[in-house]
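Field: sequence (string)
Field: structure_tokens (string)

Example rows 1 and 2, in order.
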Amino acid sequence: MFKVLLGLETNHDLEDEPLYLNIEREESPLIVNVDRNGYFRQNYDVRGWKNIVKQLKEDHEVYSERTRFGLISDAFAAAQIGRLDYETVFQLLDYVPKEESSLVWYMVKNGLDTIAKFYGNEPDNIWAKRYAEKLMRKRAKRITRNITSKEQEEVRAGMPSKSEDIPSPVFDVSVEEPNSRKILSKRSEEHKASDSSLNDFFDGSFIEAYCKFGPKNCSSTFRSVFEKEVQHRCGDNDKASQCVRLPRHFRGITYCYGVKKLGGIALEKVKNLYKLEDDEEEKKRLTKGMSCASKVSELKGQLLNALERTGGIRISDIVMVFNSVSVNPTAEEFMVNFLIEKWEMIIARFRGEFKQIEGVINACLGKLRSEGQIMLVSVLFEF
């Protein structure tokens, strides 16, 4: 007999008590809330999780994609509130190198990212990142085979290219294509149609998380891609949405690593592309790229540029700029102090747009690091 706990609380303000089910089956795995049709979480006792782990290792596809997503989501949620030990969670993840579902990997990625953030700068963070990188490595290689532009496809089809002398990325991005313009054109249209798909979003998000865990080839790969697909391809009067031919879900991370590794030259390139761009989604990617600068002076400059009326940043995008900069680890050094020092400038820029002001405050206060900063903020807002 093993127990199933339904209605697992992840918010201590919930009033509903958990429901326990005693199941008279010890060897066969039993899953509650198959396909996630119910709005509740569930946990299992040691025997229940052991049976599930065994089944996933033997044949994970007996469970639907949504069911596998739910199992992993529930396991991480239970572990975060102390209802399940992380050893069981890691045993559950042993099968995932065989997992093909972008949806399931999205949950795995989120869970691993939460663990890494929990450890912060503690020594265990190194172990957490190494574990995550190793678990995600195989899928990362598979996904990044799709980092290819239309020009790269044309080169492989025997057509000339102006940038053949630029080194290829470290990841294997080769895709065999027949020497036929008609087929290339058809595949290009199919690719454009799939750019905005959910799987593309999941894959782009996955690679961004994977690169945060520290694999060295991310830097060299996306720096090279930036040089070839952005720096050398886009002229001073070009829009990124027209001149950058990378799949959309790889553009944000390409802009980011270009700015991070190539410095000021790449930053100015991305800034110029932002000013010319009229596609909203592309502007978001470019904003994210600018926020990856590694110098405090460059990041502060972006915030000041956003607040200045002549900076070229629309007032509706200012909060997005602050949010993007705030997730850069370098920003921890100055976000709170910047809020305090530039408070009058922030108020003047928004002219009573309190929702926007609130967004800036939230972006900055997420980096509170000391009692001194808390006291300064308390005085500023008269808490």
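Row 2 begins here:
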Amino acid sequence: MRKIWFLYTPELGMMNVYLQSMAQDEFLIVVHLSSCPTDIEGAGRGAIAREDLEVGDIALEIPVSIIISEDLVHKTSMFPVLERVEGISSETMLLLWSMKEKHDINSKFKVYFDSLPEAFNTGLSFGMEAVMALDGTLLLEEIVQAKEHLRSQYNDLVPSLCNEHPDIFPPEVYTWDEFLWACELWYSNSMKVMFNDGKLRTCLIPIAGFLNHSISPHIMHYGRVDTATNSLKFPLTRSCRAGEQCYLSYGNLSASHLITFYGFIPKGENPYDVIPLDIDLSQVDSTEEAHPISNWSTHMVRGTWLSDNHGIFHYGLPSPLLEHLRQARTLMLQSNVTAQENLEIELEILEDLQSTFDAMMQNLGEIEPFSEQCDWDVKLALDFKGLQRRIISSIVTSCYSGRKLVENELHNCTNNG
């Protein structure tokens, strides 16, 4: 069986010993680990192929016996207490379990927990300066709401558990900082796995959780336990050359989601980075005889550089958005629409869109000077804001170029008419 070579920080030097002792005779592959401090593209973790791997090769295979899932909680003294908590999810139980297990020197998962970072540096840990640097973006509100939700969840659940069962939930272990750490652990490292009993569980998977994400991953399909081997296999869907980092797909995720729950922006052109545009068609100018339209419509607009069609009536913009706006204006005319009227409608649409996205750009404020000395969270916030500017700028440019195309066609139409 082929292998991948994992490179981590020094704390992970004993992970291979841990894996083999945990899995015992069930351990299916030998994974060579390097204990040397290595920083792969700034991530501080990653996996390098030791040899050429082809499509279909199994890059990694993990036995079920070392996967951390909700079954572990059921065997603890905290489960009878937690199962009486109304509405508590298995994921929350696991989160509370991991807070305590992390500090248990006799835990069979001690080496795994020791290998984890002291801070995950996700958007959930953004300081006030970083949050304010996001002013003008929807991510600011998303992060604030996520942080408020976690704080509310902690206040509603943890203090009462500590007061009523201090022997099971010691207050010195169940602090807010430890709760946030555990939340970030599960958000950034957990995977959904379908087990042989047909149940989908949220799990922590030693080793696999350290693979980095890419918008062009080598491994995409890995969420089902193999019944024959009782293991979780990670086959390649794209070849990986020796010495190349082997990437895993975390899912079809936008930069805003990856920042909030994972703490990074992926390299390359991410097709899932969009600007949401809410349109209230009731605000479109109309006459008294016009058909009343009052519904809201939401459209996701990507950077127009991702489109292959920038010609007239396309402009690199989403076709559903353009068609939606065209239909709304055509209905208001209540008559057969001439070619010239269609072009005039097209021009109005592009002018309105350009005005809307111009306002979005202004709302982002001035480009802030970047300093190498700024904190990690501020840098990440400014990088995201730069990405938003790039997307909006491409849309504005496409609207402007589209207007020129339509104006030229309208000029020809008028002259020929």
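free_text_note (row 2): Residues 376-416 form the longest helix (41 residues).
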